[in-house]
Structures are given as structure tokens and as C-alpha cells.
Write a structure and sequence with these properties.
Elements lengths: L24 E4 L15 H9 L3 E4 L9 H6 L3 E2 L8 E3 L14 E4 L11 H9 L3 E4 L15 H22 L18 H16 L11 E4 L4 H11 L25 E5 L16 E6 L22 E4 L4 E3 L7 E4 L9 H12 L3 H5 L14 H4 L2 E4 L2 E2 L5 H17 L3 E6 L5 H8 L5 E7 L2 H11 L2 E4 L6 H8 L4 E4 L6 H11 L2 E4 L5 H4 L2 H7 L2 E3 L8 H15 L3 E13 L17 H6 L4 E5 L2 E5 L10 E2 L8 E5 L6 H4 L7 E9 L2 H11 L19 H9 L7 H11 L4 H9 L14 H12 L8 E12 L5 E11 L7 H18 L7 E3 L4 H13 L4 E8 L1
Parallel strand pairs: 1-2, 1-4, 2-3, 4-5, 5-6, 7-8, 8-9, 9-12, 15-16, 15-18, 16-17, 18-19, 19-20, 20-29, 21-26
Antiparallel strand pairs: 6-13, 10-11, 10-12, 13-14, 21-27, 22-23, 24-25, 25-26, 27-28, 28-30
């Protein structure tokens, strides 16, 4: 026997009072969506259980339903065409719009939760008729796992279908195989007959009746869920002597698979972390149980049907044809597989639905949803009620509007975007925006080789431009654009903003909104444009995560008592083996100067001022989270201003800081003591001056003769460092006491920056990571204090985008796309502090693999 799990028929969840006898009525509607839909949501034994409790069950007659009407009548159902008496109407698939009855509760698979265009007319009619819609697909437990589904039988049917298809395809290739005797799933009365056919094929294989001309066959099963297990168990009946040749592939998102005579059974929906299987060579057949068009199999653009179950994809010609002969890969992607085994599918589905039926029967669609005594499983599956989308599904309307805007754009001219800067952050921005064929991208930079390479890679227009020196060219270029994205150093943003204001072009940047940019706020408003800053990581995602938490707290009447946020871009632990425990992927100047800046924060109601420079080390504290990373942190900039920006004046603690590995701050403090972190002009390092070694420079800084011996210099530096041997070792390791020439620069910090960029850059195959920890103290109206933490940890990709590039570039690109598509309507100068901006971005970064976790503890 094929071992399939079958839930025990449980008790209904609510107790029935005698006074409700025959007062609540439910109905099973006739399925009329297509000729093959022979399932029902409940089997006769489920109907019997419901009628025994005193409820009235109407059965709409159907000559197509696999379980005969008389079986339902025997179980206590009442056979009649008119089901208008019912308050709850159950079906499997969507009913025709013209057959909907107003102010009823319906339950079926609506296929509306992704704003599927084909079903938006149905959704509109449901809203118009004030129907309460319960979607089986959204009936999930506390872990988000579906509790009502046909999935198991989709796996069985799909397995039978593709084994049959393999027989046809191999025959077309000149090989008769035992698979020819396995039929399509609907040819069997039940699964037992189907399993016997598979066993028979396996027996023939064990007798050696597979043609030797084929060679070994390789089968790949993707996914690890119940459907995958059912498919694999079914397959075991026909493996015969192939058991030693069977190869099970462990999937990784970076893997590409290729074998001779390969068959893939796809049992997973695609996401960005799912392996792309469309690059497989020598494939014979693919069965996509998920029927996920454009998913893991990119060339699977349409589902097949039970009437026409197979098609062939010719990779050479990039065409799809119906014949199983000729060149190509056999495809089977039927989207209603359980309908091929309708009786067992009905019983299986009904077993899972049955425990929730009584509370659904008692649903009164004329009353507010909030007044209904639903369990979380049912309540969270209510898509519409009382003429509106349920709160959890309001996003459907947003998705519809977004799609309509995109469609409108696609019918017109392309949107033009100018990206200024070609550094490492720019590439994720370009990659993301280039996915949309309706966006024409121009990248402007003075790095000619970089922009030419980017132009070839992403099909964009490279333009040589030095923003600081070619203002007229910048203005002319901006005037032709719909949006400008500035990824330049922050000091150039005001210059770019002025050009955007003059041409009334929207602008986006990942950097801080500086005082110089803030001065242009009135001009931005007068121009009627949108300028959004602070869209990267820090600032950027830190703001968005904070505002999401703060807004949710305010919705329930809670107040924020404390907020701390630490963030850092770091090398992956295995690549942190240097005195700074740090590496640079761009100019270190900003990082070095950061420790020279003052910082202000609020701690337990008191304002704390930190003086940068030598005393910077006093503000560094060890972090007690992620202990394996051995982190330290220090405050940066003015944290107190966020009381107003975030709207949390109630907070007694406000601190935003930087994370580093322990030892970083002490090493940098040594540079401060030596006078190396200094932006004053240093003529001895200019191009016209004589070459200078680091040893000679250090001799000058510690006040000894340039000709001094190394041990004398070492002793003088040790004394200058206050006898700190760790700081001395860091200086030696970095070659600051040696004979290497100091880079030409305008200042000491610029020279040190160039030196560190060369010494501490990422090597081939080395990864970075970003770590963010937000901590909130939230006081609830009940008086309880919630301590909520948000953790964001992202690793870079080997030979791909760095973690910093992804977490800065992708949110910036997403905001740009939203602005182009009209999702952001606000005008003026702003950060990502409104739900209109942060909400969609926090959802969309998940699809790009940028995941964050939250945890809360409650104190009385």
C-alpha cells in the first residue's frame, strides 16, 4: 500500500446547544469551474458528523462530482438545487460571479491573495455583495503552516503523470520501457490501483527489462515537505535495481545540476533563495508539482492541463511545442492535480477541514467580523467581510494599484533614471532596476572603466561625468531624467539636489540628510519634487525597523521608554585577522574621521556628550549580545534628535551607535595619539614634495630625527602611545614604522586612509557581514514593559555583492522603483519615516534574502 498520512476525524471545535437545531444551514455547492473538477470540500462521513450535531446540510446536485449524490443523502444531506437558505457555502474552486449570493459566508480557494489579475473581477463582486470569504489557502497554524490542503494527493497524481510521460518521451527517443504501462492518474479508480501499476513497472525493471541503450536514469526530488516524501515513497515502488544508482541532490541556491537522462520532480515554490534549475543540461523531463510559472524553472511560463498534460521546451530555439517527439525537455505542470484522484482527495481534505466547520457554520456575514467567535485559524483566513478587505489583506488593493501603474507605464515611454556614482554600492542598485525593461538607466561617473563595464553588464548608458567639476553637464543630464539616484560622497548631494530642483526632477540618496541638504528643503517643496535621503543601511534600514516598531506600539496605545540601535559593517569573523579586526571596501576616510566627531545621546533621562579624538575610547563599551562575535560599540552623531524625528519624546534613553570587533577602537585610538587622524593640510605629502617613508613621517610626529634607528623610533612611538603595547603592535603590523613610502595626499588622514585601503582591503573570496541590533523598551497600557529586540545579520556573497552593498543598495533601489511607479506620492525632503515608504521596503528586502528577526520579553 502507498502509505499516505490521513488525519483522524476530530470533533468539531464548538459545542452545539440544543436551541440551534436546524437553525444554522450550510451547503456544498456544485463545482462548475472546469470539466475535471470532481472534488468536494467534504465527504459523506463529514456531512454525517455535521448533521448528527443538528445542523442542516444542503447538497447541490452534481452529475460530475466523483462521490455520488446518494451517498451524501444517506449521510443526512438534503439534495436540492436552491441553496440560498444556507449561511455558509463550501466549495473547492471559485464559483461563477453571477452565481454569488449576497451577505453569505463562502469558503473556497479564491486565488486572490496575490492580487491575481484573473480573479480580481471575482473579488470585486464579492466585495460588492458583502460576502465573507474564507480562503482555505490562508488557514494556517501558529507556525504559518497550512492546516487545510490537498497537497499530498497533488504529489501522488503528479508522480503518476510524469512516469506516464516519461514512457511516452523515452519511446519517442527510441526506447520502450515499463513506464509505458503506467497511466495518467485519473485512469485509476483509486490510489491502490495506481500503486499496483507502479509496482508492476518496478517488477519489470527488476527483471532487467529496461533498455541498456538508455543507461542509468537519474531522478531529482526537490523540497523536503510532505508532498516530496509522498513522491519519493511512490517512486520507490519502481526503482528495482536502480537503487544503487539513485542520486539525491542536496539543493543549494548556488548549485547547478546536470546529468545524463535526468528527471526532475519540482515540489517547491520558488523564492530568491531557491535554486535556479533552468540551467540543467541533458534533461529528459520535469514535473513541476507547484505549477509555479516563472519560478525555479524559468522557461515554464504556462501550466499544462489534464486534457493536454505535456509540452516540450526546445532550449535551442527557445520555443514550446505540444508533441513529445523532436528536440526538447518534457514538461508536466498541471495546476489541479488532486482533481485526478477526486475521492481520496475529498476525504483527505475534508478530514482537515472538518474540525473548523462548526465555527464557520455559525458565521453571520451581516455582522461585523470582530463580533464573530472565530479561532485564529479561521479568523486569519477571512479575506473579505462586510464589503471590505479584512485588515490583514488590505495589501491586495495596494498590489492591484501597483500593477495597474506598472501596466500603464509599460504602455508609455520608458522611465529614465540617472545613477550618479559607480562604486560598490551602485551595482546592486543597477541590477535591481535593470530587471524592469521599462526603465532606461544612465550611470554617470568619472571612473571610465567602471561605468563601461557596468554598461556592458546591465545594458545601461555610461556617461563620463565629474559632478564636482562639470556642473553644467550635470544640469543638462539631470534635465532629461525622471529620477536621479546619488551614490556620491555626501558632500556632493547638495550640488546634485540643486540640479534636480532646477529641472523639477525627483532625487534619492542613501546618505544622511546633512544640514547643507536640509537648507534646500524649501526649494524642494517649491519645485514640487520628492527628495528622499537616508535609504541605505545606517541610515536607512535602521530607521525603517525603528519606525515599524514605534508605529505598531502607538497603534495599541503603548509608549516607547527606551531605544538603542547599534549597527556595524564588519569582515566575516574568519577574515578579521588583523589588528583593527576590520577591512575596508571603500575609502576609509569617513570611518577614521568618525571617531574624531563628538556624539550626544540620552541615557536614563540625562544627556551625555562624548568628545571625539583621544577621549573617544572612554565611550566604547563591550556588547553582551552575539557573544561569539566579541563585539564592542560606541555612540555616533546626535542621537537625541530622534526623539522628535521618531515621535518618541517619552523615551528616557536614546542611543544610536557603531559596532566593531573588540580591539578596533583601541587600535584606532593609537592613530589618534600619533596625530595621524588629522585633516589639516600636510605639505610634505603633496605631489611636488620629496618622497617620504612611514618611518620618516613617524619620526617627525614623535619629535626625533628622521635618521633615528628603528629601535629608537619604536621606543619613542611606545612612549607617545602611553606605553600601550597593543597599539604599538598594530602600528608595526600595518608597516607604519617601516620604509614603505607614504601615499601622496593632502593630509595625514588621507595618506593613512590610502595606506589602510591597500593593507586592509577584501581579498578574493573574502566576505563581509553587517550586524544590527535594535532594542526597545515599550510600556503597554496595562503597565507591562516589553523588551523587544530586532536583529539583522547579513553576510556578503563570495565573489558577489557584499553585505554592505546589498543592504545599502537594495533599499535605495526599491525606494527608487516605488517613486517611479507612483507608490510614493509625498512631496518634499524626507527620510524613510512614513509607512508609505518603509512598509513595502521591509517586505521586499525579504525576497532579496535580507532577513531580520524579532524577539520580545514581557516584564510586569
Amino acid at each position: 500500500m502507498l502509505r499516505l498520512s490521513r488525519p483522524k476525524l476530530g470533533r468539531l471545535r464548538l459545542s452545539l446547544s440544543k436551541g440551534l437545531h436546524h437553525k444554522a444551514v450550510m451547503a456544498l455547492r456544485r463545482e462548475d469551474v472546469n470539466a475535471w473538477e470532481r472534488r468536494a470540500p467534504l465527504a459523506p462521513r463529514h456531512v454525517k458528523g455535521i448533521t448528527n450535531l443538528g445542523y442542516k446540510v444542503l447538497i447541490q446536485p452534481s452529475n460530475r462530482r466523483a462521490i455520488h449524490d446518494k451517498e451524501y443523502v444517506k449521510a443526512g444531506g438534503i439534495l436540492q438545487e436552491d441553496i440560498s437558505e444556507a449561511c455558509l457555502i463550501l466549495g473547492v474552486k471559485r464559483p461563477p460571479e453571477e452565481k454569488l449570493m449576497s451577505k453569505k459566508t463562502y469558503a473556497f480557494f479564491s486565488h486572490t491573495i496575490k492580487a491575481q489579475e484573473a480573479n480580481m473581477g471575482l473579488l470585486d463582486e464579492i466585495l460588492k455583495q458583502e460576502i465573507r470569504l474564507i480562503d482555505y489557502e490562508k488557514m494556517v497554524d501558529h507556525r504559518g503552516i497550512r492546516v487545510v490542503a490537498f497537497g499530498q494527493w497533488a504529489g501522488v497524481a503528479g508522480m503518476l503523470n510524469i512516469l506516464h510521460g516519461m514512457g511516452l518521451r523515452l519511446l519517442a527517443l527510441g526506447h520502450h520501457t515499463p513506464f509505458m504501462h503506467i497511466g495518467m492518474a485519473h485512469n485509476y479508480r483509486n490510489s491502490s490501483q495506481a500503486v499496483q501499476a507502479v509496482r508492476d513497472a518496478g517488477y519489470e525493471i527488476s527483471l532487467g527489462l529496461m533498455p541498456k541503450s538508455i543507461g542509468p536514469l537519474t531522478f531529482v526530488f526537490t523540497g523536503t515537505g510532505n508532498v516530496s516524501k509522498v513522491n519519493f515513497n511512490c517512486f520507490l515502488f519502481c526503482k528495482g535495481p536502480l537503487k544503487h544508482n539513485l542520486r539525491l541532490c542536496v539543493r543549494q541556491s548556488s548549485s547547478r545540476i546536470g546529468f545524463m537522462y535526468l528527471f526532475i520532480y519540482l515540489l517547491i515554490y520558488w523564492s530568491f533563495s531557491t535554486p535556479d534549475l533552468s540551467h540543467v543540461c541533458e534533461l529528459v523531463a520535469i514535473c513541476d508539482i507547484s505549477a509555479d510559472t516563472g519560478g525555479s524553472i524559468e522557461f515554464m511560463t504556462e501550466c499544462t492541463t489534464i486534457e493536454h498534460p505535456f509540452c516540450m521546451y526546445d532550449a535551442d530555439q527557445h520555443i514550446i511545442h505540444d508533441s513529445v517527439e523532436g528536440s526538447g525537455i518534457l514538461m508536466c505542470s498541471i495546476d489541479n492535480l488532486p482533481a485526478q484522484l477526486p475521492i481520496e482527495s475529498t476525504e483527505y481534505f475534508g478530514d482537515m477541514l472538518y474540525p473548523f466547520v462548526e465555527e464557520m457554520i455559525l458565521s453571520d456575514a451581516t455582522q461585523p467580523l470582530e463580533s464573530q467567535n472565530f479561532s485564529p485559524v479561521v479568523r486569519d483566513a477571512v479575506i473579505t467581510s462586510n464589503g471590505t478587505l479584512a485588515k490583514k489583506y488590505k495589501y491586495i488593493q495596494t498590489l492591484r494599484e501597483s500593477r495597474e501603474r506598472v501596466q500603464s507605464l509599460s504602455m508609455g515611454t520608458k522611465k529614465k533614471v540617472l545613477v550618479l556614482g559607480s562604486g560598490y554600492v551602485s551595482e546592486p542598485v543597477l541590477e535591481y532596476l535593470s530587471r524592469d525593461d521599462n526603465i532606461e538607466i544612465t550611470v554617470g561617473s568619472d571612473m571610465k572603466n567602471q561605468i563601461e563595464q557596468l554598461g556592458k553588464k546591465y545594458g545601461i548608458n555610461p556617461v563620463s561625468l565629474d559632478v564636482g567639476k562639470q556642473e553644467e553637464k550635470l544640469g543638462s543630464l539631470v534635465a532629461t531624467q525622471d529620477l536621479v539616484i546619488s551614490l556620491l560622497p555626501y558632500v556632493l548631494h547638495p550640488l546634485v539636489a540643486k540640479a534636480c530642483i532646477a529641472s523639477k526632477v525627483n532625487m534619492i540618496t542613501a546618505s544622511y540628510i546633512t544640514p547643507a541638504l536640509k537648507e534646500l528643503e524649501k526649494s524642494v517643496e517649491d519645485a514640487g519634487i520628492t527628495v528622499i535621503g537616508e535609504l541605505g543601511l545606517d541610515p536607512g534600514l535602521d530607521h525603517m525597523l525603528a519606525m515599524e516598531t514605534i508605529d505598531k506600539a502607538k497603534e495599541v496605545g503603548a509608549t516607547i521608554e527606551s531605544y538603542t540601535s547599534y549597527c556595524g559593517g564588519l569582515p566575516a569573523p574568519e577574515h578579521s585577522n588583523n589588528p583593527l579586526r576590520y577591512k575596508f571596501s571603500w575609502s576609509p576616510v569617513g570611518v577614521l574621521m568618525n571617531i574624531m566627531q563628538p556624539a550626544t545621546y540620552l541615557l536614563n533621562g540625562k544627556v551625555v556628550n562624548v568628545v571625539g579624538g583621544v577621549s573617544f575610547l572612554d565611550s566604547v563599551t563591550p556588547m553582551d549580545y552575539f557573544p561569539g562575535l566579541n563585539l564592542e560599540g560606541y555612540p555616533n552623531r546626535d542621537s537625541t534628535k530622534y526623539a522628535e524625528i521618531y515621535g518618541i519624546s517619552s523615551a528616557h534613553t536614546l542611543l544610536r551607535g557603531t559596532l566593531r570587533y573588540k580591539g578596533y577602537a583601541k587600535a584606532l585610538n593609537g592613530f589618534v595619539k600619533l596625530g595621524l587622524i588629522n585633516r589639516d593640510a600636510f605639505p610634505a605629502l603633496r605631489p611636488e614634495a620629496s618622497p617620504l617613508t612611514w618611518k620618516e613621517l613617524l619620526c617627525d610626529l614623535v619629535g626625533i630625527l628622521p635618521s633615528s634607528k628603528s629601535d629608537v623610533l619604536k621606543e619613542a612611538v611606545f612612549k607617545k602611545l602611553g606605553g600601550d603595547s597593543a597599539q604599538l603592535e598594530a602600528a608595526e603590523w600595518l608597516g607604519l614604522l617601516g620604509d614603505e613610502q607614504v601615499p601622496r595626499a593632502e593630509s595625514l588622514v588621507d595618506a593613512l586612509s590610502k595606506h589602510l585601503a591597500a593593507k586592509l582591503s577584501y581579498g578574493p573570496g573574502e566576505k563581509d557581514m553587517i550586524v544590527m541590533r535594535d532594542n526597545f523598551g515599550i510600556r503597554h497600557p496595562s503597565g507591562h514593559l516589553e523588551n523587544k529586540t530586532i536583529d539583522l545579520v547579513v553576510y556578503g556573497d563570495v565573489n558577489g555583492f557584499s553585505a554592505m552593498a546589498k543592504t545599502v543598495g537594495l533599499p535605495t533601489a526599491m525606494a527608487a522603483k516605488m517613486l517611479l511607479d507612483g507608490e510614493i506620492q509625498a512631496k518634499g525632503l524626507m527620510g524613510p519615516f512614513s509607512k508609505e515608504i518603509y512598509g513595502p521596503i521591509l517586505e521586499r528586502i525579504k525576497a532579496e534574502g535580507i532577513m531580520y528577526t524579532t524577539q520580545s520579553t514581557i516584564k510586569p
